[in-house]
Amino acid sequence: MNNFNLHTPTRILFGKNAIAELRAQIPADARVLITYGGGSVKKTGVLDQVLSALHGLDVLEFGGIEPNPSYETLMKAVTLVREQNVTFLLAVGGGSVLDGTKFIAAAALYPQDIDPWHIVETRGSDITRAVPMGSVLTLPATGSESNSGAVISRRSTGDKQAFMNPHVQPLFAILDPVYTYTLPPRQVANGVVDAFVHTIEQYLTYPVDGRIQDRFAEGILLTLIEEGPRALAEPENYDVRANVMWAATMALNGLIGAGVPQDWATHMLGHELTAMHGLDHAQTLAIVLPSLMNEKRDTKREKLLQYGERVWNITEGNEQQRIDATIAATRDFFERMGVKTHLSDYGLDGSSIPALLAKLDEHGMTALGERGDITLDISRRIYEAAR
Amino acid sequence: MNNFNLHTPTRILFGKNAIAELRAQIPADARVLITYGGGSVKKTGVLDQVLSALHGLDVLEFGGIEPNPSYETLMKAVTLVREQNVTFLLAVGGGSVLDGTKFIAAAALYPQDIDPWHIVETRGSDITRAVPMGSVLTLPATGSESNSGAVISRRSTGDKQAFMNPHVQPLFAILDPVYTYTLPPRQVANGVVDAFVHTIEQYLTYPVDGRIQDRFAEGILLTLIEEGPRALAEPENYDVRANVMWAATMALNGLIGAGVPQDWATHMLGHELTAMHGLDHAQTLAIVLPSLMNEKRDTKREKLLQYGERVWNITEGNEQQRIDATIAATRDFFERMGVKTHLSDYGLDGSSIPALLAKLDEHGMTALGERGDITLDISRRIYEAAR
Fold first, then answer.
1. Contact (CB<8Å) A215/B210
2. Do the Cβ atoms of B264 and B198 come closer than 8 Å?
């Protein structure tokens, strides 16, 4: 097992009517900015519940944070926070709202003579303070509610990049599975695929005998495989929604990745697809992962076999056959969730692959994966095999 | 799944030479009291490493905290903390030192006109502040390094009772598996059994469809079963020690118990055995658990079958046979670890059972278990069947 430093300070308030715990989490004298997305939290009534829970506090609102939250939009909120002396940020929504609010939190207190895009360019390394934030989660997927990472896009330059810093980790997360009943099926499916791939990125590398980490990762994968299709079929089954929600949080709060190698190449290749073609984040993961698993079947051999056996119960055939079956099972799972796994399914013929590789190069993504051996040439093969 | 409020704020610094991270965790102007046990940390050199890491800080020492730490001993440290204006406590040792230090932390700042034993009597409910503390763990077992609970004994009255409060949760835990190489086999075995039973107490109840919790609990149990005997056979196998250490922490940091019913009757019945007869904590658990599983085989039926199948691969026979085999496998595991499972193995003939029941009664332990249906009469049957 590798050494690690693990800190998971976000308080999780989980369950039906967990909103009742919200008020106690925010200082009574706070000036609160509620951030949200395209307005679904208004339609579903979640925003009203939040406002009602915060009745009597000094509250402002900022809506309109889009999927793949953009620097351009977020900078408007940064101005608002600075002008209005906001002291607490409450993100109400899914991963995009969470990620965008993390950027707002850090950018608002960033030196005013530096363009806050610098936060993204430096991967968050020079953040020294941020406006404290909490969250009310409506879409289980990214795990952003209890980690210190965020992914931000800049439309003007076609960039999509991640930053991390402990100062932007939410203090608390309200997780009420009932809030997810009204999600469109596409978002439910995307969330399940996203959480699944987060887990794989921290599990499907090379073995370091981290048995707790492996068992926990396998437990998350099994839960998503069991409950993902049920979440689509039975949208108001509380326990199913609860299991998916808790799985997504546990998939990316640092726990299963502590002490083991991590990959993240699927995400990096996926980010470029979203930035260039506007595909949903989870769609890009479903396209890249099966292709990457096949391309890296030799260096990932031991974990592919373990994953196939423990998660998919694949024990028949020789090693290559079992690995083939394991990759096929993974692809089939994404397809059963309704998330297609080829570029052509999204009307892409692969002609943009050179441009995608140029963007990877520009972003320094030339030695990806747990061994740093996914060069631009390997990335090209992964994209090409995903056509 | 049940609602829950989960907070796991203890920073984990895990791995070889994690002691290098110690200094940065403690305020530079702190007046530190290092607490430890019977002196093994001197013999093994761990205390020297700690002192060396803290060189230049204002440091005091308090040794002699015994297994099942006593009120009588701890009150001497409370006096020291008060007289010397100690501002930070650093527990160096295992669960007893941790638990004892939690008591010291709360008692030192407790109203001076109230006997701090009141902290235990009120189960920690009225603690409003405590001296901040951290830990350097040398014995993986209790999970006390990253939770808010402690168990304290009072020799003068033969009491052993638990208290909990967030104010006594350690800020950090240094977990270096190498520190456990020199542990006596009996302590290694006790630690594995203790962690195993902690997991069972939060898992073997009735199903609430908490799939992540179940999978994680099963992952911890499987890891302890795989690695426990190897820890005895290969004391300097780093990965084995690392897996046992991480399993023990995860078994009782709140995670697997969040959102599911909990039992804890085995611990309550065990505490009375330790208080009256001085048995090791883990010995009492190994005595009580198989007997309790058998006594509660009907109300725990579904989880017993799931546990048998997923952890012990027991799938043959009818339900009663599978439950019998599951209980036998559990008992056999404890025996293989060298921890005996009958009262008679410790020279006890059961004649103290009425006195044990009187103590349970005195401590209000008359409706135990996840359903509150373990009455004194059921406890009597559990003790008697464990003879």
1. no
2. no
Do B209 and A239 make contact, defined as CB atoms within 8 angstroms?
Answer: yes
- CB distance A211–B243 less than 8 Å? yes
B176 part of contact set with chain A, CB < 8 Å: no
CA geometry: angle at B179 spanning B23 and B38, to 5°?
Answer: 90
Q: What is the pLDDT of residue B336?
A: 98
- Among A239, A242, A259, the residue with its CB nearest the CB of B14 is A259
A362 vs A95, A121, A365, A368, A376, CA distance in Å? 25, 12, 8, 14, 11
Give the 3-state secondary structure of residue B59.
strand
Q: How confident is the model at residue B159 (pLDDT cuts 50, 70, 90)?
A: confident
In the stretch 214-243 of chain B, residues with CB closer than 8 A to chain A read 214-216, 218-220, 222-223, 226-227, 238-239, 242-243
Tell me if B36 sits within 8 A of B93, measured CB to CB: yes
Strand A58-62 and strand A31-35: the pairing is: parallel
User: Torsions phi, psi of A141, nearest 5?
Assistant: -170, -65
Is this prediction's ipTM beyond 0.85?
Answer: yes
Query: pTM of the full predicted structure?
Result: 0.97
Mean pLDDT of chain B: 97
How much is the pLDDT for B160?
86
CB contact (8 A) between residue A7 and residue B7? no
Contact B99, B150 (CB under 8 A): yes
Catalogue the long-range contacts made by B106-112 (C-beta closer than 8 Å, 24 or more residues apart): B106/B130, B106/B165, B106/B167, B106/B168, B107/B74, B107/B75, B107/B78, B108/B78, B108/B81, B108/B82
Residue B12 touches chain A, beta carbons under 8 Å: yes
Low-confidence ranges of chain A (pLDDT < 70): none
State whether A211 and B227 contact (CB < 8 Å).
Answer: yes
Residue A87, beta-bridge partner list: none
As a whole number of angstroms, the distance between CA B206 and CA B237 comes to 37
Each residue's pLDDT tens digit, B236-260: 999 999 999 999 999 999 999 999 9
Q: What are the pLDDT digits (tens) for A334-381?
A: 999 999 999 999 999 999 999 999 999 999 999 999 999 999 999 999
Binary contact (A1, B216; C-beta < 8 A): no
CA distance A236 to chain B (A): 14
Q: What is the pLDDT of residue A195?
A: 98
